[in-house]
Specification:
Strand 20 and strand 21 form a beta hairpin. The chain folds into two domains: about 280 residues, Roll (sex pheromone staph- cam373 precursor fold); about 110 residues, 2-Layer Sandwich (GMP Synthetase, Chain A, domain 3). The chain has about 400 residues and is α+β, with helices and mostly antiparallel strands. It has eight helices and 21 strands. It comes from Evansella vedderi.
């Protein structure tokens, strides 16, 4: 698939998705119906410039100078259990893509091939007797004396599907579709409700066996690949597919990707799965003490020092992201009441110094966000072997 483009220079803002909930059959899942519109046959494509930041970002392919949203935009926000899972699902999928589609050579675009109707049909339970359910990837209800038994023994596993597209090329040669990346979000807890004879609702939850979830997710992934290969717009394009394990409702840390597979040009069968060893750890917590006792102790001392400097208790929490059992990123958030700007500046400077003295052994980026009831106050970004970047919001 090939498109002609021209290059422009300008700024770009990635907008987060909204949602339009519609209740599906039964009382166990929300399905979003996305209105689809016909696009003009003649389209003019442009590419955003590279942004010079400590982190790397993909340049984007724009349609008529505008950000090209996925026709399935809105599904993720309502199908998954919490906001932090949604964000990690989207950003983590882009991160996975960097291993196969270098940011210097490829341009990003939200998925353009899977529509809202298509994803909705995949999220339903399979039922060969009804057209709208015959493409469902979730298991049929099966047998049981009560609705609760049928649902509990046949949980909905797949909660969402996300598609990203990656393009390559130049102004002179045009751009070509270089890869399709698909994420499958899998539940860790199945939430559902039943109604008794008197019309009263009963709410249930069923913790799922994670090995079973991954096994089913891999089978679903193979079916998704087969369906993509039948789409002539995708054809032989390389496909990367990844499984995301959600956290339960109310979790303070997000879920994570657990496995991925890469299919080369024209490949139709997933040959190998690559495990992804990733987890998020909250500080302070028992999990933090058990996972990384040294960092846990340092973080506790850091909180004590900051509160002594500030003269009062402050809400300070940390979230560590671990890959292959090593810290890959640490995020620290301050949540305060309203304070004077001079006080915010002094606190930010103090914390910056403490990062250098107390976390000097951490060879991972540290992000510190200061927030109050008035909104963002300041931030610090510290990368290994670099001076911290400090910004005070005016």
């Amino acid at each position: 698939m090939k498109l002609k483009i021209s290059l422009i220079v300008g700024s770009f803002l990635l907008l987060l998705s909204g949602c339009i909930p519609v209740l599906d059959r039964g009382e166990e899942e929300d399905i979003i119906i996305v209105e689809e519109t016909e696009d003009s046959e003649e389209q003019h494509y442009v590419i955003t410039p590279t942004i010079d930041t400590p982190e790397n970002f993909y340049r984007n392919v724009l349609n008529e100078g505008r950000y090209n949203r996925s026709p399935a935009r809105g599904n993720v926000a309502d199908a998954m259990n919490n906001r932090i899972d949604i964000n990690q699902f989207e950003l983590g999928l882009m991160e996975i893509a960097t291993a196969h589609f270098p940011q210097s050579d490829y341009y990003f675009q939200e998925g353009q091939f899977l529509t809202g109707d298509t994803i909705n049909s995949w999220l339903r339970r399979y039922d060969s007797s009804e057209t709208r359910y015959m493409y469902g990837l979730n298991p049929p209800l099966g047998e049981g004396e009560t609705d609760e038994e049928r649902m509990r023994s046949n949980p909905l596993i797949l909660s969402n599907v996300m598609e990203h597209n990656y393009w390559y090329g130049s102004e002179e040669e045009g751009v070509n579709l270089g890869g399709v990346v698909i994420g499958l979000a899998l539940r860790s807890v199945y939430y559902f409700r039943t109604e008794d004879e008197e019309g009263r609702y009963h709410f249930h939850e069923e913790p799922l066996d994670l090995e079973m979830v991954e096994r089913e997710g891999r089978a679903m992934a193979q079916e998704v690949v087969s369906r993509l290969r039948n789409d002539e717009r995708i054809g032989d394009t390389p496909i990367t597919i990844a499984l995301f394990q959600e956290q339960r409702r109310g979790s303070i840390v997000p879920g994570s990707f657990i496995a991925m597979a890469e299919l080369g040009e024209g490949q139709t069968t997933i040959q190998n799965w690559e495990p992804i060893n990733e987890q998020f750890v909250f500080f302070p917590s028992n999990q933090g003490r058990n996972t990384d006792p040294n960092l846990s102790n340092t973080f506790s001392q850091f909180r004590t020092d900051v509160e002594e400097f500030f003269g009062r208790t402050i809400g300070i929490v940390g979230k560590g992201r671990y890959k292959n059992d090593s810290l890959d990123e640490l995020t620290i958030e301050f949540n305060m009441q309203s304070h004077g700007k001079a006080e915010i500046i002094a606190l930010t400077q103090f914390v910056s110094g403490r990062l250098n003295s107390m976390f000097d052994q951490i060879q991972a980026p540290i992000y510190v966000y200061f927030n109050s009831i008035n909104g963002p106050e300041s931030l610090i970004v510290r990368h290994p072997d670099r001076e911290p970047y400090i910004h005070i919001y005016k």
